[in-house]
Design brief:
By secondary structure, this protein is α/β, with parallel strands linked by helices. Helix content is about 50%, strand content about 15%. Helix 1 (about 1-20) runs parallel beside helix 3 (about 45-55).
Length: about 200
């Protein structure tokens, strides 16, 4: 059922992006998780393109998150599917990097925009010297390769502060917000605009 469910999710995400766009929030990007089965399904890339056109959405506002375990297969069909999606202008993120078997050299073959460091790597910050060394090293490599770095599972202010010091580009986690419905997210973002920088 993952293929029809994935198409329903894609349609829901694009509808929400269109709603935000018509409400003056065309700056928002939405990410959705994609399974290996969806990637290998011959119609997925076409479904993405049709949904973007149907809802009149700029492709860079949609981001597909691919799990590290899916990317670790590194097979020709997966790479071809990712390349085709990338040609549409859709953003790609590698999720949970650091938990699976993807090698650093594999990153050079994957057409990703963002690499999301898995929460286990972030948990040890800021106290563990080993965690600081690993995260710092990975962030340096990601920046040298031209990726946007994202720290997942940020739950403490000290973690966020250290990640800022290590030049991590983006962060997500309960410290920033718990998952919320779309209407509540709009209120959250409006409140953030009112905060002093």
């Amino acid at each position: 059922l993952i293929v029809p469910i994935g198409e329903w999710v894609l349609e829901t995400v694009c509808r929400q992006l269109a709603q935000w766009g018509s409400g003056g929030r065309a700056d928002l990007r939405l990410s959705m998780n994609v399974s290996a089965r969806q990637l290998r399904h011959g119609e997925f890339s076409g479904a993405i393109k049709r949904a973007l056109v149907r809802h009149n959405i700029a492709p860079e506002r949609l981001e597909l998150e691919i799990s590290e375990s899916c990317a670790a297969h590194d097979d020709a069909s997966t790479l071809a599917a990712l390349d085709e999606i990338k040609r549409h202008g859709v953003m790609l993120a590698l999720d949970d990097f650091g938990v699976g078997a993807t090698s650093i050299s594999a990153l050079t073959r994957l057409p990703m925009d963002r690499i999301k460091l898995e929460r286990g790597l972030i948990n040890g910050l800021p106290d563990s010297r080993e965690a600081r060394a690993v995260v710092s090293g990975l962030l340096g490599i990601l920046h040298e390769l031209g990726f946007i770095s994202v720290a997942a599972g940020v739950e403490r202010p000290q973690q966020l502060e250290m990640l800022r010091g290590l030049d991590c580009d983006e962060a997500q986690g309960f410290l920033i917000s718990r998952p919320v419905p779309a209407a509540q997210l709009e209120a959250f973002l409006s409140a953030q605009r009112m905060l002093p920088r």
